[in-house]
Amino acid sequence: FLVLHFFNFFFIKLGLVPGDPEDFYSHAHALFKIPAYNYIYLGCFILLGLHLFHAFSSAFQTLGLNHRIWTPVVKVLARVWAIGIPAGFALISLTLWLFR
Question: Taking the model in full, what pTM does it have?
Fold first, then answer.
C-alpha cells in the first residue's frame, strides 16, 4: 500500500518518476480506471481496517484502561473507527472506478 502511494504520488511530487506534480486528480482518475489497481487498493484498505480495529482497542488495554463498562464502548468505537476511515478512502476509489 505504501509502495503504491509513494510511487504514484509522492515520487511524482519529488520528480523521481514522470508525471505532472500539480495534477494528482487526473493521475488518480487514470489509476482508478484499472480494475487490478482498485482490487489491490481496496484489499489494502480492508487490511488497514483490521489493523485499526486491533490498534485502537489494544492501545486502551496497553494503557491499563480495561474496565467492565468502558471496554465494550471502546470496542464499538474501534469498530466505527476501523470501518469509517478505510470506507472513506475506499469511497474515493469506488467512485472514480464505477462512475468513470
Answer: 0.74
Q: What are the domain boundaries of the chain?
A: 36-100
Nearest C-alpha neighbor of 41 from the set 81, 9, 78, 13: 9
The upper half-sphere exposure of residue 97, i.e. CA atoms within 13 Å in the direction of its Cβ, equals 16
Provide the pLDDT confidence category of residue 21 given band limits of 50, 70 and 90: low
CA angle at 19 for the pair 17 and 22, rounded to the nearest 5°:
125
Q: Is the pLDDT of residue 17 over 70?
A: no
Contacts 24+ apart (CB under 8 A), 35-42: 35/97, 37/4, 38/93, 38/94, 38/97, 40/4, 41/1, 41/4, 41/90, 41/93, 42/90, 42/93, 42/94
- Nearest-5° Cα angle at 27, 31 to 46: 45
